Amino acid sequence: MAEPTKPRLVCCIGDIHGFPTKLQNLWSNLESSIGTADFNTALIIFLGDYCDRGPNTREVIDFLISLPSKYPHQPPDGSEFAFAAFLGLVPQPPDGSEFAEAWKEYEENEEREGWYKGEGYENMHLQGRRWSGKIKAKFNVAKGMDYKGSIYDAAPTFESYGDDVCIETGDEIKHCKLIAVHAGLVSNQDVKEQLKFLKAKDTRVPKVDSLSGRKNVWDMPKVSTFFIMMQ
């Protein structure tokens, strides 16, 4: 009788923030703790924030790009919306409108946050302008540290360049759908509606709280707190 197929391991990794050495150390530690055989076939989900703050975003991106060829049975996943917006890779709004039309809602912050006004800014998504700008304030009171360029500390960035899973509950192995998002879903809104909004990828919206906000990040719905994933 054939042995049952072993459940595939899932690893969620977030907040790399331009630190290639820390990413490589984490990668090595994961392989050591999981075991090479299981690690080579694991589902790796990158949750974003590849850039900002750290010294070398380019090396982080190069490392991520190299993974499919090194681990052909372990395709990584992930995205970096604001970085893509700055590079002009975000698709235009589906209704044909310009990104600039969405600036109006937050234009009172433009001077204080120092939105980017360089080449190509005229039709850049708001988040691309905010991340690549230069904030006038020198000190970030909330973090207790100096700003490193833009309101999202993006200077180092631009200077350097629902799967099916099995969960062990102790008594049994449960098959379920994994929702992996960076930042977080909130408990005071219907989860299906939140996912529907995120999947729509409507670039007319200048700011998506669940992707860029921090106020509700700990207020997760119970369906998302079934188990804790180490980043």
UniProtKB/TrEMBL annotation:
SUPFAM superfamilies xrefs: Metallo-dependent phosphatases
InterPro entries per record: Calcineurin-like_PHP, Metallo-depent_PP-like, Ser/Thr-sp_prot-phosphatase
Gene3D superfamilies, per database record: 3.60.21.10
Residues covered by the Calcineurin-like phosphoesterase domain: 10-68
Molecular-function annotations in GO: hydrolase activity
Protein name, as recorded: Calcineurin-like phosphoesterase domain-containing protein
Protein's organism: Cannabis sativa
